Amino acid sequence: xxxxxxxxxxxxxxxxxxxxxxxxxxxxxxxxxxxxxxxxxxxxxxxxxxxxxxxxxxxxxxxxxxxxxxxxxxxxxxxxxxxxxxxxxxxxxxxxxxxxxxxxxxxxxxxxxxxxxxxxxxxxxxxxxxxxxxxxxxxxxxxxxxxxxxxxxxxxxxxxxxxxxxxxxxxxxxxxxxxxxxxxxxxxxxxxxxxxxxxxxxxxxxxxxxxxxxxxxxxxxxxxxxxxxxxxxxxxxxxxxxxxxxxxxxxxxxxxxxxxxxxxxxxxxxxxxxxxxxxxxxxxxxxxxxxxxxxxxxxxxxxxxxxxxxxxxxxxxxxxxxxxxxxxxxxxxxxxxxxxxxxxxxxxxxxxxxxxxxxxxxxxxxxxxxxxxxxxxxxxxxxxxxxxxxxxxxxxxxxxxxxxxxxxxxxxxxxxxxxxxxxxxxxxx
Amino acid sequence: xxxxxxxxxxxxxxxxxxxxxxxxxxxxxxxxxxxxxxxxxxxxxxxxxxxxxxxxxxxxxxxxxxxxxxxxxxxxxxxxxxxxxxxxxxxxxxxxxxxxxxxxxxxxxxxxxxxxxxxxxxxxxxxxxxxxxxxxxxxxxxxxxxxxxxxxxxxxxxxxxxxxxxxxxxxxxxxxxxxxxxxxxxxxxxxxxxxxxxxxxxxxxxxxxxxxxxxxxxxxxxxxxxxxxxxxxxxxxxxxxxxxxxxxxxxxxxxxxxxxxxxxxxxxxxxxxxxxxxxxxxxxxxxxxxxxxxxxxxxxxxxxxxxxxxxxxxxxxxxxxxxxxxxxxxxxxxxxxxxxxxxxxxxxxxxxxxxxxxxxxxxxxxxxxxxxxxxxxxxxxxxxxxxxxxxxxxxxxxxxxxxxxxxxxxxxxxxxxxxxxxxxxxxxxxxxxxxxxxxxxxxxxxxxxxxxxxxxxxxxxxxxxxxxxxxxxxxxxxxxxxxxxxxxxxxxxxxxxxxxxxxxxxxxxxxxxxxxxxxxxxxxxxxxxxxxxxxxxxxxxxxxxxxxxxxxxxxxxxxxxxxxxxxxxxxxxxxx
Lengths: 429, 576
Fold this sequence. Notes:
The complex is a heterodimer. Chain A is mainly alpha-helical. In chain A, 69% of the residues lie in helices and 1% in strands. In chain A, 43% of the residues are buried. By secondary structure, chain B is an alpha+beta fold. Helix content of chain B is 15%, strand content 34%. Chain B contains 9 helices and 27 strands. In chain B, the strands form 5 sheets. Chain B has an 11-stranded mixed sheet. A 5-stranded antiparallel sheet of chain B has the order 15-16-22-18-19, with no helix packed on it. Chain B has a 5-stranded antiparallel sheet with strand order 20-21-17-24-25, with no helix packed on it.
C-alpha cells in the first residue's frame, strides 16, 4: 500500500513542479475558473504589497483573505509553491486515513443484514484499494493540478477541511472543533459541517439522537462550546494582528454580499450582474440561505450515516457557494471512490461525466471567444456555467439516490419480488 | 505680463515686477479689471491665442455681514465663495488635447474635459457635503454636467495641487480634485462664462470670443481661477483675484488658409474697436521672439516688451487698446501677420509626457505613462498624480518605474486603494527624472464586470480614465546658459541658481479610453429565470429524495379493469 501511494505522490509532485516552472503557471493563475477574488494568489501578493506600503490591505477592495493568511504568507511568500504542495500532500494522507476508518464501519454492519444483500456489503479485499483510488482521484485530477499550480488558497482551505475530516473520524472532538472553526474562519460555509461532525461523534459514543435525551443536548452544548470558543479566539487574534475590525466586512461581508461580479463557474455572478436593483437584497438572501438550508433536512434523513452526510454537505457547499472554483469541485469529487459500491445503482453517471468533461473543455474556449476574440458574448460562458452546475447537481443527487436505494436493499433484500412473483421495480413515492 | 506671475513657484507672494507699463506707485482702486490677449504664432503654422481677464477686489468674503454691492466682480461667483467658504477654486473646460511637442507649453494648462479643484477654508466642518453642493451649484452656473462629480471620481491629492494663492498650506483634507474627461464644451458653456465678465461680450477683448470660430479650433479651453493675492509687497491685506482665461489654438489647415497669413478677422471673424471702458488696462501682445525676420506685422507698433515666461525670455509687440491711436483712422484694429519664411527651430519642451493602455482582451491591461526629460544635463523631480476609477482594479505590486532601462525607485509613494463604487484609486509619486531620458511607469490592472445598470448608454464606447497630472519645477532655458560665468562678477556666479532659475509647470497626459466586458443587456429576465431554474433543479431533486421513500411499484391496471373494479365495488363484490 505504501509503495503505490509513494509512487503516486512522486508522479503528482513531478507534474506540479514541471508546471510551476513552465510559462503555463502564469496563464493558469489568471484563469477565472481556477481562481476567484477570494482565493487568487495575485491578490495575496497585492495585500502583502499594500502592507509594505503602510496601507491596510482591507482599505481597498482587492484583498479578501483573512489576517492569518496574510501573516502566514508574510513569512512564507518565497516558499509559496512548496507550501501549496505540502498542503496538497497532507490532504492525501488525511484522506487515506479517512478511508481506512471507513472500513471498520462496514465490518460492523455486516451481520445486520439479510443474506441476499450480503453481496452489497464490501469485503475488506475490495476496500483495500480505495485509499489509493481516493489519492489518485485527488492528486491526478486536472482540477486539483490547476488549482495547485495557480497557487490558489483553495488548496489551503481543502487541507484544513481534510484535517477536520481526519480528526472527526479518529474521534478527537476538540481537534475536530478547532479545524472546523479554522475552515469556517476562512470561508463561512463549512459551518454546516457541524451537524455531520456532531452526528458522527454521537454515533461513536453511542449517544442516541433523540431530542428528549439530556445526553444529546449535553453533547451538542459541549461541541458548540468548543467550536464557538475557538472561533472567538481566532476572531480576536485577527483583530490583534492588524489592530482593527476592517477585515470583517472585507472578508465575511464580501462573501455574503457578493459585490464583485467577476465571472466564475458558479451561478451568482451573472445573476447579480443582471439583477434588478429593487430585488437584489431579496435574491441575495435567497441564494445564501440556499446553501445552509439543506443541513437540517439532510441531517434528519442521514442521521445514521454521518460520513455520507459530510460528503453531501461538502458537495452542496461547493456547488452553491458565492465564489466557487474548480478546487472546491475537486474536493468532493475526490471522495467518490469511497462510494464505489454504489455504482450499480447510479442512473445518470454516463451523462453526467460527459457533461462535466465537455463543460470543462468549453469553459476556456468560450471565455476566449468572449473576452479576447470578441465574437461571442457573456451569454455563452453563462450557458456553460449553468450546464456545469446542473451536471454537478445531477451527480450529487444521483449518488444520494444510489445511497438511499442501497440502504433500502440492505434492509429489504436485494432481489425484490412483486405480489405476483415477478421482478419488482422500485420507485420513489 | 500676467502669465509670468501665474507660473512662478507656488509660494511666490505678490507680483514680481514685469517689465511692462503699469507703475506700482499708483494706489490700486478698490476693484480693478484688466484684460489682455497674447497671440503667439507656433512653429507648426498654428496660432495660439490666450485671453486673460482679471478682476481684483479688496473685499473679505469671509466676514459675517455679507457683501452685497458687486461692481466688477460677478455676483454669482462671489456668493459661491462666501457660501461654501472657498479659499481657492479652479475650474476649466477643455475641448481637445494640448500637443506639447508641437505647440510648446501653454500659459495655463488644462486637461481634456472638465476639471475642478477647490481648497476650502479651515472653517468648513463637512468638506464632502460642501463639495457636493458646490459641484451642483457650479454645474448650474456654467451649464455643465458637473453634477456627475461624486465620490467615485473625487480624490484628495496629498502632495500635488498646492494652493496657487497666498495662505498657509495646511491640511490636504480641505482639498478636493475631480475631473470629468467625458465632458464636452460647447456654446452653452461659453455663454454663461462670458456673462461673468464686467463688459460681457460687448466691449473690449471679449468681442472676439465668437463660438463659431472658437469651437472650430484644434484646442479650446476656458477656465475660471479664483484665489487670494497680496495687495502689496508687505502683504498685510489680501484681495480676491478672479481670472477668466481662454486658450485657443487655431489650425492653419482647418480654417482653409492657402497661404500662411493670419489676421484677427480671419481668426475671430471680428476686429477690435474699443477697449472695455471698465478696464484699467487692455492690451494685445504678439510674440515676436522666435522669428523677427520671418513674419511681418501690420499695423506696426513701437511698443515692445520683454518678459521671462515659462523659463524663456520672450519679446512681445504691445498694442494698448486704451489709447485711441491704436485703432487708427478706421477705428478698428485688425492685426495682420504674414509669414515670410519657414525656418527656425522650436525650443524643445523640457518636460513632456504620454500615456497609453497596453494589453489585449477585456480581462487585464497595463497603463504605461512615459515622461520625457529633454534637458541635456539637469535632472529634476516630478510629482505624478494618477486617479484611476475603481472598475479598473490596479495591482500596485506590479508598479514599475524604469528610466533608461534601469529601475528608478520613487522617493515618495502615496497610494490609496479604491473601494468598489465608493472611491477611485489615487497614486501619487515623486520621481526623479534623469537628464535626457525617458521614464516609464507601468502598472497592471484588471477590468471589472459591472452591474448592467452601471453601464453608460453606449457601453461599447468605453470608459474614460482621467488624465494624469505631472507637476514639476523645471530648470529654465534662460538659466541653461552655462557660459554665463564669464561675464558676471565672481561674487554672483558661484552657485548655479539664480533668479528665474526654474519655473513651475503642470502637464496633463492624454485621457484613456478603456473597454470593459459587458453582460447582455437584453437578458435580465431570462437570466433570472434560468438561474432560478438550475437552483430549483437542485432543490427539486433533493426534495424528492428527502421526502419520499422507496416502494414496490404496482402496475396500473388497464382502463377496462379499472372501470370493472369500480362497478364491482359498488356491487360490494371483491375487485379483480
